[in-house]
Structure of Major facilitator superfamily (MFS) profile domain-containing protein:
Amino acid sequence: MTLTRRPLFGGLPRVFWVLFGGQLVNRFGAMVLPFLATTLVARGFSAAQIGLVMSACGLGRLAGQPVGGLLADRVGRRATLIGGLVATSACLVALGAARGLPALAVTAGALGAAGGIYHPAAAALVADTVPAEARPRAFGMLHWAFNIGAALSGVAAGLLLAHGYWLLVAVDAAANLAFAVIVAAGVRPDRPVARDRRRPAGYRRALRDRVVVAVLALSLLGKLVYEQQRFGLPLAMAADGLPGSAYGLLITLNAGLIVLVQPVLVAWTSRFPRLAMLGVSWVLIGAGFALSGPAAAAWQYALAAVVWTAGEIGMAGFGAALVADLTPEGAHGTYQALYGWTGALAALVAPSAGAALYDGGALWWACAVAGALGGLSAVLLAPAVRRR
């Protein structure tokens, strides 16, 4: 099979492109959280207080994911998606109006929860409507839209921030409402699939499935390593005497590579088994961050970034697709919520875990071991996945 036989953009249903357009608009408008810490510093809050606010947002996201998954399966994908987006918009306005630390923490937590609610519904809608063979490409394309929007958002937010933080709040809230309108206009109302009441339902059923639990555990491990781009890499580059702009260029390289190669790479690799490609992705992520250990110059960090970016691209396309393959009918919301929950947990835990390992001089070795463990586990798990 050649690359030309696998379309980059064709063969995906209309509903997917509605979500793609909404994701692009929504991510372009996502300006509040990236600049929240900077804004709170300017308002005189301490590092500990800012950490509390950001942690509240992370905890809210952890709580919102399972709620969103249940709602998506019990109420419907469309209603949950629209409700979560409207709630996110309201929480953004509340966060922008908050002044004291308690109000900031509460509204940040509510914002995280609202954001967590609509993500499983969107993923479930993709799993419902996209043919199984095209799911890696579809989930990869959503990741692609996320990065295009993020690249444009960073530039626009930097310009708007000079005129006031409220502009960021207004744009972010409007983007969420725009996504909700796009979904309302472009997605037909759906009805939850009737479930067999004689069998365990929801999260009980998912967590009794050993194959699913193994995939989720390995995904959590891979995401814990990947999250070191936000914590371990800045520390290591600063220790090597590199300026903050070098880290900024590294993240720009990461986003640029995703924008340039993600559609082509995922279209080509989608011929291979999902778990095999996930195993390769986990190895690449682990190896890429392990290569950051001996790196000292900016170009060396850049070479390592090419490796872990390739792993990120694979993980984004094949992770959710594999979970969808393992999901019983009518349960995509809860299963995708569990998969999304691994990312939320990794984002919350990775800074403290990375700090402990970095201070002990073991962070990059741990990344290498985690990547190797992910690859080996994928090989061992493959027979069980093939039997499904």
